Amino acid sequence: MSLEELLRDGAWTTEPVRAAIDDGVLRVEAREGSDAWRVTSYDFIHDDAHALLAPLAAREAVEVSFLLDYSEQFDQAGVMIRVDERTWIKAGVEVSDGAPQVGAVVTRGVSDWSVAPVPEWVGREVTVRASRAGDAVTVRARVEDEPWRLVRVAPLDPTADARAGLFCCAPSRSGLTVTFTDHRRGEADGSLH
Fold it and tell me: What SUPFAM superfamilies does its record include (predicted)?
């Protein structure tokens, strides 16, 4: 499923300020204050990230590529898998404490968060892959054609009706525009390792 097909056939969880295909890329401008988080540590619920989603089968993988050319606190982009407002996974690169961090938020009633710094990824194309198989989603990420890095293995009910695709949000500023360069679907990964 190409970016054009996702934009045509997918559905936004929350409409962004702007989203348009231009020269083969999808540029999405996030609304200030948009985010996805549930309760843990911060005691608030934000459920207005800009996620463009389409159905994800039980043994399917989704890859989202984007340019890491943003740098403000909590700017973020990547892939989201969503069942409902209480069950979802977002994974990608988020700026936190002055550095880009590859990581994931897994939400099952409440959210958790894991990150690792990737300052060497700045200005480059990042790809995040979420592979759904059995009772798990395996998240990997890489920059350009470097080897995949395992980001997270998270539980997901194998019978859940899930949707997946790209996302971005800008919790602390206006003007964030993310350039998405690709969206692909395919078979789930054959193994975890």
Answer: Concanavalin A-like lectins/glucanases (SSF49899)
Residue 193 counted as domain residue: no
SS3 68: coil
Residues 53-81 have pLDDT tens digits of 999 999 999 999 999 999 999 999 999 99
Contact criterion met (CB below 8 Å) for 177 and 27 = yes
* Total domain count, the chain: 1
Q: What are phi and psi of 48, to 5 degrees?
A: -135, 30
Residue range 31-47, pLDDT digits in tens: 999 999 998 878 778 89
Does residue 160 lie in a domain region? Answer: yes
pTM of the model: 0.95
Note whether 193 and 176 are within 8 A (CB).
no
pLDDT digits (tens, 9 = 90+) for 126-159: 999 999 999 999 999 999 999 999 999 999 999 9
Sign of CA dihedral 66, 16, 79, 43: positive
Q: What is the DSSP string of 71-102?
A: -STT-EEEEEEEEETTEEEEEEEEEETTEEEE
Give the domain extent around 142.
Answer: 3-185
